[in-house]
Structure prediction request, 330 residues.
Amino acid sequence: MHTKRDFLGFSSLDAGKIIELFDYSLYIKNKRKESSSASGFLPLRDKTVAMIFSKPSLRTRVSFELGIHELGGYSITLDGQSIGLGTRESVEDIARLLARYNDAIVARLHEHAVIEGLAEHASIPVVNALTDLSHPCQVLADAFTLYEKSLWREGIKVVFVGDGNNVANSWIELAALLPFHFVLACPEGYTPNQELLNAAREKGISQIEIMHDPIEAVANADVLYTDVWTSMGREDEMAERLQIFKPFQINSALLAAAKPSAVVMHCMPAHRGQEISAEVMDGPQSIILDQAENRLHVQKALLVKLLNHEEYRKFHLTHRLLNAAKKIKA
Prediction:
């Protein structure tokens, strides 16, 4: 019997599966350059994906909608408030109904418990496109960007400067699987989810630090990463946060305290002049648009893995055979 696969976070993966997903993302990205439709590469042909958005979206919506289309599928976009997710209708009823119509659900929500409810009651794959707790699709694309640029290695030092929010939480979840050095430089009182932090540290895979001095934190850093200081749903805290987070801006002075080769990342949307200076965002060390573009390629790879696992496995089998043949010739 086919086992349903969800992607709510990194717990369903391991280091090997993540690298496999990255290799398939590279393949998907190269396929797009060849024009997927022209080459007949349509692994999601006749598949439909229901997408629920309870939060505003630009990159997530465009990358998923476009990705599904390019893979031969069809997306249906639903507004969480309009369908009354958890109010007009129960999460359980919506999950079961959408499973009768569609092949997968992609959801961008507030409460993480809601996406867990969708996954529990839907018989089709459910993808976490962001909750207040985590943003795994974003961090997959981020890590893939470093992998693609040959920057990813065991011990790479990634310093997240800012709020211990959902993106920081997903970096910590990733640190429970892939070995690297993760530092969160945040004001006191703005630390990440303690349960996720404890669980990641217990795995002992990565060095994970929480620091409150950004200059000290970025010493010897390979990657400086930031996000907005005020996440969606916390707008009433904005004035207070602008004052508290002022020392945590990624600017030329902070970048100079990292390795000369350090790259700068931001999951966007960016508030220039707040968490990042325009000079750094548009500077030569920024790979921000690269990581934004890679949302498309990684999410396409993820959807194929979830919805057409035979196609996904076929690629990796061929990939392994080609590598083995190269080694024999060498």
Summary: The chain is about 45% helix and 15% strand. The CA atoms of residues 27 and 150 lie 16 Å apart. The first helix runs from residue 15 to 34. The chain has two domains: 10-134+295-325, 150-286.
